[in-house]
Design brief:
Layout lengths: L1 H6 L3 E6 L1 H14 L13 E5 L4 E7 L5 H11 L8 E5 L2 H6 L4 H21 L4 E5 L18 H14 L12 E3 L1 H9 L11 H20 L15 H30 L3 E2 L6 E2 L10 H23 L5 E3 L5 H17 L1 E3 L8 H21 L5 H29 L4 H21 L9 H17 L6 H6 L2 H21 L2 H8 L4 H5 L6 H9 L3 H17 L14 H23 L4 H24 L2 H4 L1 E3 H8 L1 H11 L1 E2 L4 E4 L5 H30 L4 H29 L1
Parallel strand pairs: 1-3, 1-4, 4-5, 5-6
Antiparallel strand pairs: 2-3, 7-8, 9-13, 10-11, 12-13
Keywords: Acyltransferase, Glycoprotein, Golgi apparatus, Membrane, Transferase, Transmembrane, Transmembrane helix
GO molecular function, one term: N-acetylneuraminate 9-O-acetyltransferase activity
Subcellular location: Golgi apparatus membrane
Length: 722
């Protein structure tokens, strides 16, 4: 279907010998796999796909001679419709017929010299490819082909490469030399049936690459790193580039001014007294403008690296190939490191800050290994990773519910702080990398769920722990709110139409559409629809038990009495293993995804109880995992472009030829960048979202203006694209 979409209304011509005929058949099988190789071997073979108006012809011209020249010349005449793609090549027949004589090579050079200007003329309006001759496997050649040697083939190829394009100075009017077939043949010709023609798998690869060469620049596939011109900078990208450039210049100017002032105030020796005069101490506080410019200066340099890695076609990308060892060996390695860096926690409460950071950290590292190893193809691993993603959302429900329930702080400052920290990096990447907001699906997911949690608790009546402690009836009020939330979730999950109507209103649709619709957003939301509710419910029950002192959270103490703790621990371990056995026995991804929203909470709760019931386990944490947990969001987002590549479809190659060294270098840079972006986000959050309400209101108006301008520019951009 992609081949048909690319080649609709196109005329393609293959002209040459039996090797070109092989390439022709492999090419048309990409359009129609049912095609049989039944045509006249030494004659012209037509092919047509009427549904897409595609016409592909093979023209039998086994030698580069006057006949081939006459056919090519006919296409250069203005009255004749020119083919859109021309694939030509021949040489082995000339070697065979003339018994490999030097005179035949001389005549080949003369003939190709006469054809070259015609091909170059056609190349101004069509895509013209000259296929170099593949090497042969001389030991398998029949007696009638023994004169076709690799030495002769190299001489003919050298002549073709030297003569073609020798007269053309216009880069757009050049014949493209298709040399990949020759490279593939060097590895596979020994599997040939006759020593001359390539095995079918190699021919198919050649045809696929030929299709990529022409179609990638038309179809612009997201995972295509070959044969695509660098996408032109959009208007928004140009404005972002100007902004970051001005920020860097502004910071350098302020820095130079400060250095100059420092030199003027530098202590100097009083010549009369011989004493050293010390300057007045400068203010230790860095100005807001300087911090702002410093942050944007660093961010600009980082975004340049992002762009170079995944938009500028500067670095190569490679495919992912899953093996069990590529996934499980790194898992064991980080597990050992995590256990090695074990420390005592500052507090021993259930899901304390250090423990949740640790949880986020090891989950994020496992998810990163899952992505780079391509383990999504292995269903048991995929199902366990889905639980890890669900666990992140569970923590979202648990953490935000706990904050609002205990603090009762529903102010705008808190909301803006959370929204800024969640979305800052993604908004910048949407601008710089020209990607829709929904592309970074996890951030829209946690953002929407945060707003749902906030709305559930902030809407009248506002029920918080302080109020509920005074009257137990408020607990029932909160339970009613949670039941209403669950009902809404259930309704939207089984009513795709209603869900799409909610998120299809402009300008909301600009945030949640991907490829022109909100289906992807609905699928992502539905996949973990109950787990945030489960997190909120768990927080409510846990905090109620904690308030009534029904659990023991002392250092080294089990969470409940010994009997209850042992029973719950046994049930948790059995539940955890049962889920893993079920996930490992999954045969159908669609069916397992349907069950996942309801059952993922089993393994999450089992893990929480296993991790917290024994007091000695609850009192310890891994500082190694906790460090990564503090930058888990940045790691998850940054991997899209500077660790993986082609928007997560491939792997970034900074150092070709050394895969292990490449992964080490790219990983080091990737982690450093994620850490730096986390620091930048924290610094900017203090400036952009101040605690003072009047200042915050002004900032919000500026942010609203920024997004309105962004929306306006995106509309103009979309219209120019269409």
């Amino acid at each position: 279907s992609e081949a048909k979409n690319c080649l609709v209304d196109k005329h393609i011509v293959f002209i040459g010998d039996s090797r070109i005929r092989q390439l022709f058949y492999s090419f048309i099988k990409l359009i129609n796999p049912q095609v049989k190789e039944e045509g006249n071997k030494h004659g012209n073979i037509p092919f047509e796909d009427k549904s897409a108006s595609i016409k592909v012809d093979f023209l039998w011209y086994p030698e580069v001679n006057g006949s081939m020249r006459q056919r090519i010349k006919s296409w250069t005449e203005s009255s004749v419709a020119k083919p859109h793609i021309i694939v030509a090549g021949a040489a082995t027949w000339s070697i065979k017929i003339h018994n490999g004589s030097n005179e035949a090579l001389t005549q080949y050079k003369i003939n190709i010299t006469s054809i070259a200007p015609l091909l170059e003329k056609l190349a101004k309006s069509s895509d013209v490819y000259w296929v170099l001759q593949d090497p042969v496997y001389e030991d398998m050649l029949s007696e009638s082909r023994k004169m076709i040697t690799n030495e002769k083939i190299d001489a003919y190829n050298e002549a073709a490469v030297r003569i073609l394009n020798s007269s053309s100075r216009n880069s757009k009017a050049k014949v493209k030399v298709f040399s990949v077939s020759k490279l593939i043949a060097q590895e596979t010709i020994m599997k040939s049936a006759d020593g001359l023609h390539l095995p079918e798998s190699s021919r198919d690869t050649n045809a696929m690459i030929l299709m990529n060469v022409y179609c990638n620049k038309i179809m612009k596939p997201i995972d295509g790193s070959c044969c695509q011109p660098q996408p032109p900078l959009t208007l928004i990208q140009k404005l972002a580039f100007c902004f970051f450039t001005l920020s860097i210049i502004g910071y350098l100017i302020i820095n130079l001014i400060h250095r100059n002032n420092f030199r003027k105030n530098k202590s100097c020796t009083d010549l009369e007294s011989g004493e050293e005069k010390k300057p007045a101490l400068s203010s230790p506080h860095v100005s807001t403008l300087e911090m702002l410019l410093h942050s944007f200066c660093k961010l600009g340099l980082i975004m340049t690296y992002f762009y170079l890695c995944d938009r500028a076609n500067l670095f190569m990308k490679e495919n992912k190939f899953y093996t069990h060892s590529s996934f499980f060996i790194p898992i064991v390695y980080i597990l050992v490191l995590g256990v090695f860096y074990t420390e005592n926690t500052k507090e021993t409460k259930v899901l304390n800050r250090e423990q949740t950071d640790e949880w986020k950290g090891w989950m994020q590292l496992v998810i990163l290994i899952y992505h780079i190893s391509g383990a999504s193809t292995f269903l048991p691993v995929y199902m366990h990773i889905r639980v890890l993603v669900a666990a992140y959302l569970f923590q979202t429900g648990y953490g935000h519910f706990s904050y609002f329930w205990i603090k009762g702080d529903f102010g705008v400052y808190r909301v803006c702080q959370v929204l800024f920290r969640l979305n800052f990096l993604v908004v910048v990447l949407c601008i710089v990398m020209d990607r829709p907001y929904q592309f970074y699906y996890f951030v829209p997911l946690v953002t929407v769920w945060f707003m749902i949690i906030y709305a559930t608790l902030a809407i009248w009546p506002q029920i918080v722990q302080k109020k509920a402690n005074g009257n137990c009836l408020w607990h029932f009020g909160l339970v009613l709110k949670l039941i209403c939330l669950l009902t809404c979730i259930y309704f939207l999950s089984y009513s795709q139409g209603a869900f799409e109507k909610v998120f299809s209103f402009w300008p909301l649709s600009k945030c949640f559409e991907l490829n022109g619709n909100v289906y992807e957003w609905w699928f992502r939301w539905k996949l973990d629809r109950y787990v945030v509710f489960h997190g909120m419910l768990f927080a409510f029950i846990y905090l109620a038990l904690q308030k009534r002192q029904m659990i023991s959270e002392g250092k080294g103490d089990p969470l409940f009495s010994n009997t209850v703790s042992n029973v719950l621990l046994f049930i948790s371990i059995v539940s955890f293993l049962t889920y893993s056995i079920w996930a490992s026995s999954c045969k159908n991804k669609t069916e397992c995804n349907e069950l996942h929203p309801s059952v993922s909470v089993v393994q999450i709760l089992a893990f929480i109880l296993i991790r917290n019931i024994p007091g000695y386990v609850r009192s310890m944490y891994s500082s190694f995992f906790a460090w990564f947990g503090k930058i888990s969001l940045e790691l998850f987002i940054c991997q899209y472009h500077i660790w993986l590549a082609a928007d997560t479809k491939g792997i970034l190659v900074l150092i070709p030829g050394y895969p292990m060294f490449n992964v080490l270098v790219s990983t080091f840079i990737f982690v450093c960048v994620a850490h730096e972006i986390s620091q930048i986000t924290n610094d900017l959050a203090q400036i952009v979202v101040p605690k003072d309400n009047s200042a915050l209101l002004k900032r919000l108006l500026c942010i609203a203006g920024f997004f309105f301008g962004l929306l306006l520019f995106s509309v103009v951009q979309d219209q120019s694209r269409h």
